[in-house]
Amino acid sequence: MNCGVLLHHSILCYFTNTHVVCQEKNSDPRLTAHTLWLATNETVKAAKKRNSYVAGLVLYCQMRVCYNYDRQAYQHCSLYLFEKEGQKIMRKQDGFTLIELLVVIAIIALLLAILMPALQRVKKQAEATACKANLHEWALVFVMYTDDNDGLLMDGYGGGINGTWVGGLRDYYQEPKIRVCPTATKPMSEGARGSFAAWGVFGKGLAGDDPGWSGPKVAGDYGSYGMNELAYDTPAGAARSDHRWRTVNVKGAAEIPLLFDCMWYDVYPFDTDRPPDYPGDVAKTGGAGEMKRVCIDRHVGFVNYLFMDWSVRKTGLKELWTLNWYRGFNMANAWTKAGGVQPEDWPQWMRKFKDY
Asked: Which of 162, 179, 269, 321 minimizes the number of CB atoms within 10 Å of its CB?
């Protein structure tokens, strides 16, 4: 039944019902109103199911018919019907229109566009803070080791991986996850590459797992920090023996890098090393140019460093060439402001970073 037929049928019912009831001129108006409502309640319900607008017209027609017969009954009937049915109909909402829904979606999209960059910044700051917390834990590990060894560090590659910090410190820490920066948790064995890759997992088929120059690895090891290889206490006569720090009891320890964000578990730097030509341009194996392993943009232009005085701080990517990596390192080399570097000398991707 369409709305017009329903309305016509409803009005006829009201005329019939109201005519019968309102003939009783001496009846109680309140009783008359109640009787009218009962007589037409089912029709109103049917009208509401079809269309709330038709239901409103039906109520209006009912009250007009009552008005023609008995104005006092009309007043009571109007009030009664408004209380019983009118408020329900007026409060009823069929849902959002398409335009309203699109407006809500647009507002949500706008809020997300405003908030997402801020949330990303907060996330990166949290990751950098967690990374520093890891390095503070490593400071405690190194303190325990050097206290037990008269200030000396491990011997480097003399005993394979167990001669490095990864294996040499194994008895001093229990949780391998502190070897991993929160921004670089996916290892190379799972396909990760570039600045945010972790080295390892050893024993998982990664090419170069067991290069002859570094000795055997321990299966399962992985991480995203590396140590300054020239800090090791290598045996006499080893390559670059005069460059080695060997002990933490040295002057200027606050400028000597010990452990830091790195693409491999160590770095063998020269003060003539060039910066990476592009992000992720790193050298994984031995040879010149290993400063590329540490010049990685993990923390928005910075990396986190643990120094030999056990301090931890964020370090600018260009600042790396000003640190005292080994005995005799030229801290005024060609990649420093003191050495005359110009902003245009840096690779394009690094020119936005702070100069040192």
From this structure: 162
Do residues 157 and 81 share a domain? no
DSSP characters over 186-254:
EEGGGT--STTEEEE-TTS--TTSS-TTT-PPPTT-EESEEEEGGGS-PPTT-TTGGG---BS--TTGG
Q: Of how many residues is the chain composed?
A: 356
Tell whether 345 and 280 lie within a shared domain: yes
Of 295, 297, 168, 292, residue with least CA distance to 232: 168
With beta carbons less than 8 A apart as the criterion, state whether 256 and 308 touch. Answer: yes
Determine what percent of the chain falls in helix, strand and coil, rounding each to the nearest 5: 50, 10, 40
How many independent structural domains does the chain possess? 2
Distance between alpha carbon 105 and the CA centroid of its chain, in Å?
Answer: 22
Mean pLDDT of 204-225: 68
Spatial separation of the C-alpha atoms in residues 155 and 162, rounded to whole Å: 9
Residue 316 near residue 353, CB atoms below 8 Å: yes
Confidence of residue 45 (pLDDT cuts 50, 70, 90): low
pLDDT given at position 326: 97
The model's pLDDT over 50-84, given as tens digits with 9 standing for 90+, comes to: 554 445 545 555 555 555 545 555 555 555 555 55
Q: What does the pLDDT read at residue 152? A: 96
Please state whether the peptide bond connecting residue 103 to the residue before it is cis, i.e. omega within 30 degrees of 0: no
In a domain, 100, yes or no: no
Say whether pLDDT at 220 is over 90.
Answer: no
Residue 17 has pLDDT above 60, yes or no: no
| C-alpha closest to that of 229 among 283, 291, 139 | 291
Contact 225, 262 (CB under 8 A): yes
Looking at the structure, do residues 220 and 343 belong to the same domain, yes or no?
yes
Give me the pLDDT at residue 200, please: 86
pLDDT digits (tens, 9 = 90+) for 20-43: 444 444 445 444 545 555 555 555
pTM above 0.90, yes or no: no
Q: What is the enclosing helix (H) or strand (E) of 69?
A: helix 52-69
Q: Is residue 121 part of a domain?
A: no
Would you state the pLDDT for residue 71? 55
- 170 and 28 together in one domain: no
Domain that holds residue 71: 3-91
